[in-house]
Amino acid sequence: MFDKILIANRGEIACRVIKTARKMGIKTVAIYSDADKQSLHVKMADEAVHIGPPPANQSYIVIDKVMEAIKQTGAQAVHPGYGFLSENAKFAEALEAAGVAFVGPPKGAIEAMGDKITSKKIAQEAGVSTVPGYMGLIEDAEEAVKISNEIGYPVMIKASAGGGGKGMRIAWNDDEAREGFQSSKNEAANSFGDDRIFIEKFVTQPRHIEIQVLCDAHGNGIYLGERECSIQRRNQKVVEEAPSPFLDEETRRAMGEQSVALAKAVGYASAGTVEFIVDGEKNFYFLEMNTRLQVEHPVTELITGVDLVEQMIRVANGEPLTIAQDDVQLNGWAIENRLYAEDPYRNFLPSIGRLTRYRPPMEVAAGPMVDNNVWHGDAPTGDTAVRNDTGVFEGGEISMYYDPMIAKLCTWGPTRDKAIEAMRVALDSFEVEGIGHNLPFVAAVMDHPKFISGEMTTAFIAEEYPDGFEGVDLPDSDLRRIAAACAAMHRVAEIRRTRVSGRMDNHERKVGTDWVVSLQGQDHAVTIDADRDGSTVGFGDGTALRITSDWTPGDQLAHIEVDGSPLVLKVGKISGGFRIRSRGADLKVHVRTPRQAELAKLMPEKLPPDTSKMLLCPMPGLVVKLDVEVGQEVQEGQALCTIEAMKMENILRAERKGVVSAINAAPGDSLAVDEVIMEFE
Fold first, then answer.
1. Nearest alpha carbon to residue 123 among 185, 191, 200
2. Considering 288, 296, 644, 649, which one is annotated as catalytic?
């Protein structure tokens, strides 16, 4: 076995590989850019080598710099993680020439399957059903428009070397095809150093389901079930689960056997993933093969108990698989939510900055991974599990140079319902402050009827949130639980305030029993009857809820029992009450005396400033280009400028007809959130 492995990556996946290498007794080497000097993966590794400036094309994807780090440290093998050089055949070739093992497939398999155009041709020759499209290279935007019309709109414009949602656009007409072609080409060049583009038919109402395969260099190959990855935004997966709630055993077997056959056809040896789109009749079509470890691999590990990183290392060491297809058992259900530094209230635009608070829920092991030791969580405490794969820490920064992922939160349960409920509690317990993030959104998805039913498609987010995410309106039953909890917490805080020393003589502050709790446009008149063990909160309709908790003023997370059932609240202090976040909702909860509540209704509402005649920068980013000039009349929907953030280009458009009166930014300028880019008459 190898003595030392270099991890040619960063962030959570580098940390993930280090954990398994440590379990196997293998020393690790991290590489890092200037931006990652203080990163978690650098702290976790046994050694670390600096490889250049923050931009990936000057550090993490420069093969010569990685090879020099290998030579400097004497690493015998390299795990590439995902992204960066993980599907770069030239990198695999350079490692082979240097006598260093690549913890991934052979160079030929990467070339055959890593290039989406080539892989589709091979799949077609192998008799695999593929989506209609144009597999040749496309020279310019006009040729892209011509091909799109021949295929028929809508079409998907994709980077041949793409991945992670980069270099992908959906076009519904000629104008979108022109814009999408150029943006995809630019993103592909910046992210992968390869700007080749192809176009295929965009299949509406599809499900995205992928098969995990594992092959060795001795001709053995197995599949480890499927992952449902249909909930996506901008072609980037957000929620994954295993198994799929849609597939039956017959379809699973057919997809799995076909995936293994395809892998064997190209001499594949390592972990890999074959992606399919599946229609409502369970017809499946080959989409692409990712010749690397997938971001969402943990859900497969949680239901099979197989450590995929360990298997990749052993295959790279020349060992045969010790697992046969009959040994693969799918146990229970696993769900993964990707926590991104993206603000859902600003149409999921990137958010960068310092994590002033980062407190993930406690990891707890259970199920198949306990038996097979996939990862070291705490001892089992119940019939569900929590796992958090991350590469950040409290006080660290989310950089503008890389992918905005903060963590991958996973839960396992013996059934899908229990896995979902475990995820709800875990999300409510996850504390992140300092940046915008998508925790409220994924929490809302976990409660969405379509997700709960398992009847989602890749159009889920577009269909269910057509105007973006604007928060959650909780049902009355949940509001009553929160109102009762806040009333009890307010009483605890009031008692604390009565005990403050130094008060005036002959002045005693008494805590009343009657309060009015206001939240989400509702007022609840409540009466609190407290005792040593908790409080009974009575409502005007005669009902009551029993509240027990060890919450104390200042705690930012409250674990509460309401009539014996758990309720987890993120708690912030505001004047006269609390800021409460739960189940995707962000609530201002005021707890007042009856007289205060009466007077509060007379207060005028404070209106936000009028920015209707301004174009504000929706996220921190770089101005790539301006499409208009002062004095120009613009129409609704017209492109005004392009902002680049976290390797993604975002075109800002006019919301209404108007005339540009001032432009306050120029190409190359770095802008902050809400900075005024231009003004209109």
1. 200
2. 288
Query: Is the CB of residue 278 less than 8 Å from the CB of residue 216?
Result: no
**Cα–Cα distance for residue pair 528/174, rounded to 1 Å:** 64
pLDDT given for residue 201 in this prediction: 84
Closest CA to 122 of 277, 274, 336, 249: 274
Could you tell me if 471 and 531 are in contact, meaning their C-beta atoms sit under 8 angstroms apart?
no
| 288 among known catalytic residues | yes
Contact 302, 372 (CB under 8 A): no
First vs last C-alpha separation in the chain: 70
Instruction: Give every CB contact of residue 676 below 8 A, 6+ residues apart in sequence.
Output: 614, 615, 616, 617, 664
CA–CA gap between residue 57 and residue 189 (Å, rounded):
10
Residue whose structure tokens are 């319902």: 417
Residue 377: pLDDT over 60? no
Distance CA(424)–CA(408), nearest Å, equals: 14
Whether residue 316 has pLDDT greater than 80? yes
As a whole number of angstroms, the longest Cα–Cα distance in the chain is: 92
Contacts of 212 by beta carbon, 8 Å cutoff, 6+ apart: 223, 224, 225, 226, 227, 271, 272, 273, 294, 297, 300, 308
Interaxial angle between packed helices 116-125 and 107-114, expressed in degrees from 0 to 180 and rounded to the nearest 10: 90
Helix residue ranges per DSSP H, 130-201: 141-151, 174-192
669 CB-near residues (< 8 Å, 6+ apart): 622, 623
The one-letter amino acid code at 464 reads E
Q: How far is CA 479 from CA 469, 474, 475, 550, 620, in A?
A: 20, 6, 6, 21, 35
- Return the SS3 of 69: helix
Residue partners of 85: CB distance under 8 A and separation at least 6: 8, 60, 61, 63, 66, 91
Cα 165 vs. chain centroid, distance in angstroms? Answer: 12
Spatial contact of 246 and 454, defined as CB atoms under 8 Å apart? yes
Mean pLDDT of 56-75: 97
Quote the tokens at residue 69.
Answer: 């780090």
Q: What are phi and psi of 261, to 5 degrees?
A: -60, -40
CB contact burial 447-460 (16+ within 10 A = b; e otherwise): bbeebeeeebbbeb
Give the pLDDT confidence score for residue 380 in this predicted structure. Answer: 46
Q: Read off the pLDDT of residues 508-551 as tens digits, 9 standing for 90 and up.
A: 667 889 999 999 999 999 999 999 899 999 999 999 999 999 99
Is it true that the peptide bond before 206 is cis, omega within 30 degrees of 0? no
Instruction: Please enumerate in sequence order all residues whose Cβ is within 8 A of that of 470, keeping only pairs 6 or more positions apart, or say none.
Output: 345
String of DSSP letters for 515-572: EEEEETTEEEEEEEEEETTEEEEEETTS-EEEEEE---TT-SEEEEEETTEEEEEEEE
State which amino acid sits at residue 233. Answer: R
Please state the φ and ψ torsions of residue 14, each to the nearest 5 degrees.
Answer: -65, -45
Q: Under a CB-based contact definition with an 8 Å cutoff, are residues 310 and 293 in contact?
A: no
Q: Can you tell me the mean pLDDT for 185-199?
A: 85
Q: Which residues sit opposite 562 in a β-bridge?
A: 547, 565
Higher-confidence position of 485 and 127: 485
**C-alpha dist (Å) from residue 551 to 391, 433, 492, 606:** 30, 20, 9, 32
**224: phi then psi, degrees, rounded to nearest 5:** -115, 50
> Is 70 exceeded by the pLDDT of residue 381?
no
The residue to which tokens 């104008």 are assigned: 175
- Strands 670-671 and 621-626, by their bridges, are antiparallel
Q: Please report the pLDDT score of residue 191 as a whole number.
A: 79
Res 372 pLDDT > 60? no
pLDDT single digits (tens) 600-618 = 999 888 888 889 999 999 8
